[in-house]
Amino acid sequence: MTAADALSAAVDALTAAGCETPRLDAELLIADALGVAREALVLDPALPIPPPASRLLSQRIRRRVAREPVAYILGRKGFRRIEVAVDSRVLIPRPETELLVEVALELPAGARVHEVGTGSGAVALALRDERPDLVVSASDASPGAVEVARANGLPDAFVHDGLPGGEFDLVVANLPYVREDEWDSLAPEIRLYEPRFALVSGADGLDAIRSLVGGAPSGTRLALEHAPDQAATVAGLLRDARTLPDLAGHARVTVGTAP
Description:
Layout: H1 3-17, H2 22-34, H3 39-43, H4 51-65, H5 70-74, E1 76-79, E2 82-85, H6 98-105, E3 112-116, H7 122-130, E4 135-140, H8 143-151, E5 158-159, E6 170-173, H9 188-191, H10 207-215, E7 221-225, H11 231-237, E8 239-245, E9 251-257
Parallel strand pairs: 3-4, 3-6, 4-5, 6-7
Antiparallel strand pairs: 1-2, 7-9, 8-9
Helix pairs in contact: 1-2, 2-4, 6-7
């Protein structure tokens, strides 16, 4: 079997399964099974697939047909300039969350930043990569998530539900913000594989955000990710709030101070 044969068969299978990006998914899975870059599949479509790689690929295609996310199958996900290990204990980092990093990059040298709900540690690690002058710390309510963050290079990540004691120039958080009644309508990749506790937060999706804001010392500056239709409500929880759009133009992160 050649790379072109495998790609054609995989794209057909993933398309039939309802995957949104069947060709991209197939290319990622095939390239990883072969240990080559995606470009190699285009440059050399006759690239042979040896039996061990073929068996691995068949197994992974079956997992993707069952709608398991590619990031969980490969065990990693790129985020800005870094790559982090991910599994079902943590959410898969998404492009819109990069906006939290952008907000923190505006801070002066030596500023103290804490990430609440760090998950895989992607945001905190990206900040340490791009701004080593910042003092960055991170916590998560899930012991499993903290294990993943530590394995990714945040040895000082710790378990904490909410905002720990200490003074911070900025607190960033991508907390759960999905409404309870939205869960059943989410894509299978999310509903069947990603951790529900990291996604759903009460009837209007804002229980975790309200708890963080309510527990923060007055004047604490916060950058909070949320759904576009939650922007006005989140802004109403803060003083001097401003909402920033993500790359798709959706209201995604609100920055302000705790009352």
